[in-house]
Write a structure and sequence with these properties.
Oligomer: single chain
Number of strands: 5
Distance between the termini: 31 Å
Radius of gyration: 14 Å
Shape: globular
Largest sheet: 3 strands, mixed
Strand content: 15-25%
Amino acid sequence: MQTYADPDDLADSVAAFLAAGLDGGEPAVVVATAENTERLRLGIADRGVESTQVDALLLTADALLYGSCIHRKSVPPLYGSDSTQAPPPTRSLD
């Protein structure tokens, strides 16, 4: 667990971690709000990771959507970081 003073502090730390893995060809999954996902993408780009590498290896999911799904016992699938790509329908855990 990590505490932080503001979202930019956390995003900087997480972006450094993600950038190291993505730059090395490792895939990653991020569950965050859209605003925080954008912070992370900017932090990763600031560390020199090519956008094509990020798009190929980084899967994102909206934390608000996942939070509501926990209450409904369903899991929305992960989807790419392209904001124009709509997620597929959710699947039920039942």
